[in-house]
Amino acid sequence: MNHSHERGSHKSFKTGAALILTVCGVRMWRLLSAVATLAVLSLGVCGEKVFLQRAGTAFNGRKYRSVLDVTNGERFGSWTWPEMCPENFFVVGFSVRVESKQYGGDDTALNGIRLICSKDENRNFLYYVESHTGHFGEWSHPQYCPSGVLTSFQLRVEPHQGPFGDDTAVNNIKFRCSSNPMLEAPGMSWGEYGHWSQDCLGGGICGIETKMEEYQLGLDDSSLNDVRFFCCDKHQE
Q: What is the rounded distance in angstroms from the CA atom of residue 146 to the CA atom of residue 209?
């Protein structure tokens, strides 16, 4: 790959996350604290009120049917903690934290995945979950299923580059909606896509857990190495 570098190259530690929302021509900036359990955002969208709140671990008692995973995740780091949508909320959209190409510096590619949870596909009151995220890159604009919920995923992963290469691990992700459209994140292009996960038939994705390599103090960072999602049943009214 063309993004190899010396493993001792330095990368500055970036903290915090800025959420940028452009609504009806007005750019609104909100700082989301990385240590807050709940981050609440209320804003006007063309006359409508949208409420977005981080669920964190508050709803981790929610029961799920199965775990959706893939086989091409990478080796570095550890599984962190799950975060679940509230009861009767399912994932309808997502955004990703991605670091652009560093041109000779240390590349990390995909650093985080943020899932947006909705009840009955109501887009006015939303929660989000993201588990542990890396420190590098910017959050993308959210992408949503035109209808339905997210039910399966596919990871683009660069394999281990050896002792002197630059590991990026997870580069991108695709999701499939229950209404059948496929959504691809604006990630990076190193590596290849693996097989699709199992499909959460009759339900939808309702939580996330990430496998992260912690900050390497100036050595080679790979950040996000793998992810798994939780599948919950939809209760019939």
A: 25
